[in-house]
Amino acid sequence: MTKFICHHPWTHFEVNNPNGNVTMCCDNSTVLGNVNRGTIEEIWNGPGYQDIRARMRDEGAHALCPHSCPVLHGLKKYQNLEWHSDLPPGSVAKKNAERNDEEFTKGVTVLDSKPRWMRYAYSYKCNLDCYHCYQRDDALLNDTLPDSFMTQVNELAPYYQVILFFGGEPFLYKPVLKMMEEIEVESGCKFFMITNGTLLTDRMFENLEGRNIGLFAVSLDAASAGIFDVLRVRGRTASWTTLMGNLKRIAELHRRKGFAFQISMTVNTVNCTQIEEFVDLGLSVGAEPLLLLVSNPDETAEFQKRYLCFSAQQLSDIDLQIARSLEKVRTRGMKEAEAGLIRLRSMLRDHRRRANSVAAFQMRRIARTVFHWLPGPVQYRIRHYLS
């Protein structure tokens, strides 16, 4: 297999947990530093980043990253930062991107360039209570990122190609809304937003009119009000009608500004009858519909039994829905949606063989536990063999 070297250790700075831990992306949990104990620039060239750059250069992503990583499966193309044409000639951001590309090509581990991609989750608080949320217990702690970090994000703004707002629910937090309105980035810097879509206001839409949007991703998990209420609201205040109205407003913005517009659904035994309906919903508003198999956030047998034990009839029906949906997204040229559906089909077939019962799930969990007990070099050899 050709060694795949991911750009993320050279380009991405992510704080996906309000405890301050820094990673190179949301799919690799290796902690590279913490913004409560160091500045962005100290962490950027600290021992964590230096080590992961060296390992990525020498070993490749398949040795470092989980095999479930979407990037390794051709997904999340929006994370590529190869484009420079949208950055003003001679601008700080363009010069930084060009210098960063040189440093990546050389494989250096201490960089003169600054992060080109900044993503953070200010808090895990959310106005919904989603069935599969891995953040639920942490959200009760009400942690937030420190003011010092938010100040540093603003100070480094001229260097960014992308700033990505994440949560929890990013449109819930006043410091994030303030940054969305006031941060002074280059005209070519793109705003990326991942949201549940229920809290968008007139003021925010007015602000977004003047911003260079790169991605607007809305997580739904349903194609109808009934299933949305079961899987996402559960006693919280949110309206499917409001959400659909906001999707239409995002669609109007999308038609004028031409950014990537996505809606997503995690497939489970409750919503699996709505796969094709969800795809149709996305196509109706011009959004690329992305689907994946839900993960078991706390690795419990109860969750597995309720949401991940599919009947033979359900699996057969899912295959038919995926086949029809693939034809629809291919007709529209939606490569990301196509790759997602193909991956979903592959994940379900693997799931059927290995984890479509509580007993099989528990055996697999034991095997994973034993694997993580093995010495690091042994784990590496096993990963390398399987890749």
Walkthrough of the structure:
The longest helix is centred in the last third of the chain and has 20 residues, at 312-331. The chain has a seven-stranded parallel sheet with strand order 1-4-5-6-7-8-9. A two-stranded antiparallel ribbon has the order 2-3. The chain has helices at residues 8-11, 40-44, 47-59, 61-64, 92-106, 136-139, 147-155, 174-182, 202-209, 225-233, 240-257, 275-284, 301-307, 312-331, 335-354, 358-373, 376-386; strands at residues 12-15, 21-22, 33-34, 117-121, 162-166, 190-195, 213-219, 260-267, 288-293. Strand 5, helix 8 and strand 6 form a beta-alpha-beta unit. It has 17 helices and nine strands. It is an alpha/beta fold and 387 residues long. The chain starts with 7 loop residues before the first helix and ends with a helix.
Layout of SSEs?
Layout (H helix, E strand, L loop, with lengths): L7 H4 E4 L5 E2 L10 E2 L5 H5 L2 H13 L1 H4 L27 H15 L10 E5 L14 H4 L7 H9 L6 E5 L7 H9 L7 E6 L6 H8 L3 E7 L5 H9 L6 H18 L2 E8 L7 H10 L3 E6 L7 H7 L4 H20 L3 H20 L3 H16 L2 H11 L1
Parallel strand pairs: 1-4, 4-5, 5-6, 6-7, 7-8, 8-9
Antiparallel strand pairs: 2-3
Helix pairs in contact: 12-14, 14-15
